[in-house]
């Protein structure tokens, strides 16, 4: 007999609207998370609430206004669509829920809905392919903090990462094949950045990440190193698309300071333009849905940088969004855990 199961998909989050008030609320919740900015409590509070949020909120609000559609936030809209499509694939007794780690649908409220329905099992899938403490770790910690207070705790399964899931890779490959790959001199795989100190904490040998072999090899020692899994994701995609190593670069975007993972995407894009690359195709395999980082940061801001540096055309491979292959992959991930 199949257990009555709730499947919770969790993405990072989005403001309720692009207004200053709602963007400020979102940034404050997001950046005050101790896993996002892993500084001592008082330093984090001062930095976030007195410096980062006050100085960033106005510009962030303008960017979200550019991102917003008539229907609302793309991240939320794609999340709802994925939830609906995946629910159609499920047998009776398997219910799909959607929550955001920050803001709405609020993860606490959604888990309360789940608690009241007395499921035998809960499967929690963060929508981040590569594990990072500030994304997957924060999501799973939040879920555990809520569930641990329930009087009845059912069986709970967490999915920590799936960067090497065949369907995940194949869906990106299929999206890339919509372009004439022979028309591009170079390919960029741009991942969301992290402070170097956060990836260093993955290792128990007191050797920093940069002194390991994360660019070239993945094994049991660096399986949960975000940098290593980003490079592994890239190798899997490049192999299926027959892109030679000398024609692609792995980089990291959205940095807050110089002590984040390098190379920086904006610097690589500028350098490629200055070195004579005219046509550049960018992948963003850390994002399962198009969002501010892909739609605005890469497609608009980085494209302008590339052209200013001498490049001609920068195209972006769309994220998984609600592609049939992505729904197939999620279906397989869920049913294999039932």
Structural class: alpha/beta
- Strand residue content: 15-25%
Number of self-contained structural domains: 2
Q: Please give the share of residues in helix.
A: 40-55%
Q: How are strands sequenced across the largest beta sheet? A: 2-1-3-4
Q: Under the CATH scheme, which class of the largest domain?
A: Alpha Beta
Q: How would you state the average pLDDT, rounded? A: 97
User: Total helix count?
Assistant: 11
Shape: globular
Low-confidence stretches: none
Alpha carbon gap, first and last residue: 10 Å
| Major sheet attributes | 4 strands, parallel
CATH 2nd-level architecture of the largest domain: 3-Layer(aba) Sandwich
Write the H/E string, N to C. Answer: EHHHEHEHEHEHHEHEHEH
> Radius of gyration, Cα only, in angstroms?
20 Å
Number of strands: 8
CATH topology of the largest domain: Rossmann fold
Features:
lyase; 4-stranded parallel sheet; 2 domains; EC 4.98.1.1; Rossmann fold; alpha/beta; 338 residues; cytoplasm
